[in-house]
Amino acid sequence: MIDKGINLTPGYDLGTKIQIPVAAYLVDTEKKLILIDTGFNPLVFEDPVAAIGEYIHRNTPQVTPADHILSRLRQLNLEPKDIDLVVCTHLHFDHAGGNQFFRNCEIIVQKSEINCARSTSDYLHHDWDHVDLTYREIEGDWEIIPGVDLISTPGHSAGHQSILVRLPKTGSVLITGDAIAHSDQWNKGLPGLAVDQDLFAVSRLKLKQIAEAEQGFALFSHDPEQWSTLKYLPAYYE
Fold it and tell me: Which of 14, 73, 172, 210 is 20 to 30 A distant from 143 in Cα terms?
């Protein structure tokens, strides 16, 4: 539960409380299982204040153990060892809190993002900073495998990245992460919560151009209205 005018659209809809989804995405390429983002640190189920620290004053987690990233994977009869690759859109607490469980595969992150996380107090180290995790640091756009591309979209954070997935039946799906957290940023041009609003605007334009070229649809990370229209576990897109 958040204040939309603080967390999503600064300066607009201030005081409007909304309940938002916190999503992770599993991409099955038949050759690799790719997990995009890992949600909250499981400490949130026992002690939300310890889990997200000072951010608790503007974020009220409303979760149950069923929302644990491992619980969701078990619904698919999967364990962390079955995941071939983790991709972090960025390293904020609601996107990288479960990284600690994925010790047997690479975790893909933009170099500028992890450098910022290491050098500033804006990130919670207990989420992502573990010596036995293997980070692969990417700079800019990058093809993971044919049909799954990383797209550099800084602005919300220093090294944010989005993911383009081309599905055989659904077509192109643009997982925007927090580059576009809510449809009001996409449709109305409202600002987002960003370390750099100019870069945020540049990244939005980049994503819009990709979505138009691909004739695909964009998934916004924290939009409750869009979430209510989507398929989610155990349903899936083909």
Answer: 73
CA distance 180 to 223: 9
Q: How far is CA 134 from the centre of its chain?
A: 19
Token pair 């607490």 in the structure block, residue: 93
CA–CA dist 225, 183 (Å, integer): 9
Whether the predicted pLDDT of 165 surpasses 90: yes
User: What 8-state DSSP symbol labels residue 193?
Assistant: S
In the beta sheet, which residues pair with residue 151?
A: 162
Tokens describing residue 100: 């600690």
Distance between CA atoms of residues 74 and 81, nearest Å:
12
Is residue 85 within 8 A of residue 35, CB to CB? The reply is yes
**pLDDT tens digit sequence for 201-225:** 999 999 999 999 999 999 999 999 9
* Per-residue pLDDT tens over the stretch 58-92: 889 998 889 999 999 999 999 999 999 999 999 99
- Cβ neighbours of 192 (radius 10 Å): 24
Name residue, tokens 């992770």: 24
Please give the average per-residue pLDDT across 100-111, as a whole number.
97
Q: How far apart (Å, rounded) are the C-alpha atoms in residues 152 and 229?
A: 27
Cβ atoms within 10 A of the Cβ of 6, count?
17
**Domains by residue range for the chain, with CATH:** 16-227 (3.60.15.10)
For the entire predicted model, the pTM comes to 0.96
Q: Are strands 25-28 and 17-18 parallel, antiparallel or unpaired?
A: unpaired
CB 147 within 8 A of CB 166: yes
Q: What average pLDDT does this structure show over 88-115?
A: 97
